[in-house]
Amino acid sequence: MATYLMNNMRLFKVFSAVLLIALAPLTHAETKWLDKVVAIVDDDIILASELDERFDTIKANIARTGKQAPPDDELRKEILDLLVLENIQMQMANRYGVRIDDEELNGAVARIAANNNMTLSEFQQTLVASGASYLAIREQIAREMILQRVQMGNVNQRIQVTEQEIQNYLQSSEGKEVTSPEFHFAHVLIPVPSEATVAERAQAENKAKSLSAQLRAGKDIDNANDDISISDLGWRKGTELPALFKGVASKMTDGDVSEPLQSASGFHIIKLLESRGVKQLVKQTRASHILLKPSAIRDEAQTIALAKQLRQRALNGEDFRELAKEYSEDIGSAQEGGDLGWTSPGQLVPEFQKAMDETTPGEIHVPVASQFGWHVIKVIDRRTKDVTEDMRKQIARNALHERKYADELDIWLRKIRSEAFVDIKI
């Protein structure tokens, strides 16, 4: 049945693409073909209009960059190959049931507008002014999102990053550069002319010391006045900092102000506004929970009543772990007595996180609802953990994954292309 429907859909698309205009008795001269099939791909087709539209778009994009486009025939062939690959993946998406809902698509369009420093309304107006169709752009964005989702779903499972690869990467020059700390400094310079006298240099140094003391006492660096030079150095890797600042930066924490640092140009004061990757401390919580889900057997009200009853039983002295083993419907944690282990902020759904944060160790929160059902949450303990090394490893893992992804994607695309039925008509 599915094959029959797909074959009929293909035939419908073929016949819909062809328009016959007959003004008198049918003759060859009176028949006008407005579109034609340029390729058959498995259970679908690619039309000449699709190829022409993509050709015009890509050629215009190349022209805007100022680069030389390949000869038209060569470019058209490359674009047709691209459309074939996209078509194969879109058919896979249909089989997998991959969809992009309106809310997700709206968010993606809004991010694109924001990246171009526009509101959504301004983005729409700009497209209309340029002659583009906003609906067509939305459809293209949705298509790209679907393609990306299909690719990630198939390629990510082919990629493995080992602990040894991570360690090797961290010890490499690239790894050290990528994972090195980042600093955001504000900088004050009290200039000293090269021809300054000893007295003038001493006066500048005293001024620098006084200003440094004021800044450490809480004076806003933006309000430091007179003839001094103030600048924002922005975010910089530790390896990119001026040699004068490197030794000091590693010893500073956010908000610290340095003592005056002397160079040939004068006296420098730096304030560390923010830092990343220096030392990452995360407040973690260890909690247990009992999850109850409404069902055909137990409605919402009955589920809430049971959750309240179980909480009260635990407060009355019954073992929370045993109650979780007996009643919790969270397959992942029930056999562990509901223990979720140590979690960091953002790992759990917002409703659960909020309730957990409000509960002190040893207490049991009133039942709270989330997308998964009703939770009875017991907080066991809290701690602050240094996750700097974990963060460095995650950065390395992401870099290695991204490097492998491009290679694996190319291999996978070649594979699905070789396995598909493709009949090029031009």
TrEMBL record:
Q: Which residues form a coiled coil?
A: 152-214
Source species: Zhongshania marina
The record, for InterPro entries, names:
OMP_Chaperone_SurA, PPIase_dom_sf, PPIase_PpiC, PPIase_SurA, SurA_N, Trigger_fact/SurA_dom_sf
Name the Gene3D superfamilies on file.
3.10.50.40, Porin chaperone SurA, peptide-binding domain
EC number, UniProt record: 5.2.1.8
Q: State the name under which the record lists this protein.
A: Chaperone SurA
User: What gene is behind this protein?
Assistant: surA
Taking every annotated instance into account, which residue ranges of this chain make up the domain PpiC? 180-274, 282-381
**One Pfam family of this chain:** Rotamase
> What PROSITE patterns does this protein map onto?
PPIC_PPIASE_2
According to the record, the signal peptide region is 1-29
Domains: entry comment? The PPIase activity resides only in the second parvulin domain. The N-terminal region and the C-terminal tail are necessary and sufficient for the chaperone activity of SurA. The PPIase activity is dispensable for SurA to function as a chaperone. The N-terminal region and the C-terminal tail are also required for porin recognition.
Question: Quick one: where is this thing mainly located?
Answer: periplasm
- Family matches, as PANTHER family: CHAPERONE SURA
**Enzyme class, broadest EC rank:** isomerase
Give the HAMAP family listed for this entry.
Chaperone_SurA
Q: Which reaction does it catalyse?
A: [protein]-peptidylproline (omega=180) = [protein]-peptidylproline (omega=0)
User: What does the protein in this record do?
Assistant: Chaperone involved in the correct folding and assembly of outer membrane proteins. Recognizes specific patterns of aromatic residues and the orientation of their side chains, which are found more frequently in integral outer membrane proteins. May act in both early periplasmic and late outer membrane-associated steps of protein maturation.
Q: Which domain of life is it from?
A: Bacteria
TM annotation in the entry: none
| Keyword terms, alphabetized | Chaperone, Coiled coil, Isomerase, Periplasm, Repeat, Rotamase, Signal
> Where does this polypeptide localize?
Periplasm
